[in-house]
Amino acid sequence: MKTLILVRHGKSSWEYSVGDKDRPLLQRGINDAQLVSDHFNEQVLTLDAVFSSPAIRALHTSMIFVRQLYFPLSKFRVVNELYDFSGEYVIQFIKELDNQLDTVMIFGHNHAYTFIANSLGNSYIENVPTSGLVHIEFDTESWSSIQKGVTKQTIFPKQFK
User: Measured in whole angstroms, how far is the alpha carbon of residue 114 from the centre of its chain?
Assistant: First the structure.
């Protein structure tokens, strides 16, 4: 079985005159990421690897999760393919994952993550919100053969406010 945890980056700021990759999180984005990671931490899941888009907002969100989950940085990697808004490169990345990894968490962007959640999961999600988490399981031993999986849970900030 393969398990994919998709996490959309936290709410970012448009206040600064910086490029898209350099936009920071708002305080709300930090708070929501802490809230979702706290609730996810109650799960009995062992992550094999965590990957993030190189965008600052995704990296900051991923670091909040890594810290809250006590996940070792040695199993964390920044991956350029996750800086994708269509989902095409993200799906390609997922399908090329090492089969020794069973449970993987990835941090990235919309519209890609809503598209992927709906393409690979079996529950329709209108929009994966900022700091939103979608947990999908696949009945396969190979990432390259994943197709439609089962959406096991969603954890969205508004569920806890």
Answer: 11
